[in-house]
Amino acid sequence: MPNGAWAVPLQYLTGAGEKAAPVVALTWGVLVISVIVMMVIAGLLAGAIWHRPGQNWTVGDRGPVLSHEGGLNWLWIGVGISTLALLFSVVWTVKVLAQIERPPAQPAVTIEVTAKQWWWQVRYLSDDVSRRFTTANEIHIPAGVPVRLKLIGGDVIHSFWVPQLAGKMDAIPGQTNETWLQAAAPGTYYGQCTEYCGVQHSKMALLVVAQSPADFRKWWAHQLAPPPAPQGLALAGQGDFISHCGACHAVRGTQAAGALGPDLSHLMERSTIASGVLPSDGPTLAHWIADPQSLKPGSLMPVPALSEYELANVHAYLKTLG
Ligand code: CUA
Fold first, then answer.
1. What domains appear along the chain, each with residue ranges and CATH number?
2. What pTM, to 2 d.p., does this model score?
3. Is 188 strand, coil or helix?
4. Could you identify the atom of ligand 1 that is nearest to the CA of residue 115?
C-alpha cells in the first residue's frame, strides 16, 4: 500500500496524488472547524444550563423565565461566528473545486471506463487505432502525470471512486463524464462503485495500478501483443473457448471477439476477476467458469454448457493468457 499499513483499502483520510491532496486538506480542515464549532456550542450550552444568576435552585425545579439585559447579544455573537466559519469553509471548498477541475498539465493518457453489469470495461484510447486496446476492472496508469478518464454508462449507472486519487464521478448511460486522476507514486490504489446500482453494488471493486512511465509503456506494448500460443490441454481449451465463450469474450489474436463480457486477453496479468471479487489465481477461476452465478449472483454470465473435460481445458487455456 502506498501510505503504510494504516492506508487500508478505500482510505480517504490520506491522499496519494495531486488531485487528492487539496481535497484531503479540505476534509481535515472542515473537520477541525466543525469540531471547534461543536465544542464552543457545547461549552456555551453547558454554561447556559449551569449559570443561574441570582437563583438558588436545583435541577427539577421550575424556575421563573427571566429576561436579562444583553442576552440578545449572544445571538449576534453566535450568528457572527457561524457566518464567518461557514463563509471560510465555502470559500475554501470553492477554491479546491476550481483547483481540481482541470489537470495541471495535458493528460498523458486518455482511458474510457464503461459501467457494466457487473464489471468495469476499460479502453485505452490512442490517435493510432492500432495502439488501442480493451481490458477490464484493473486500470494501469503512469505515475506522476495526470490521466484523463472518460466515464460512460453501459447498461447500468456506477459511481467511480478511487478515494486515494480522486473524488467520485458517476458513469451514466447516454452521457460522457470527464474526470482525471494522478498518482504521486507507483502503487496499487483501491476503488469501489460508491452509489447503489443493483444486486452486485457491493462487489463492484476496481484497482488502479500506477507504474513508472517506463513500466507503463512496457505494459501497454505487452497488452497489444497476442498471448503466447497455447499447447496441449490449453490448445484444446482454446477451441472450446472460441466456440462456447467467444461470442461474449474477446482474446486478441484469436477468433474470440465478443464484446458483451470482459476482454480476456492477458487475463492472468490481472490479480483479480469479477470486479475485484476473486483472486485470479488458485481454484477460484475454475469455480467461476463452472458456476459464475454462485459467486456473483445477477452476473450476466450464464453457466456455460461445457462438460467437465471441456471446463478443465478452458481453465488450462485461460491460465496461459499472461
Ligand atoms: Cu455500481 Cu454501485
1. 109-223 (2.60.40.420), 233-318 (2.60.40.420)
2. 0.86
3. strand
4. 1
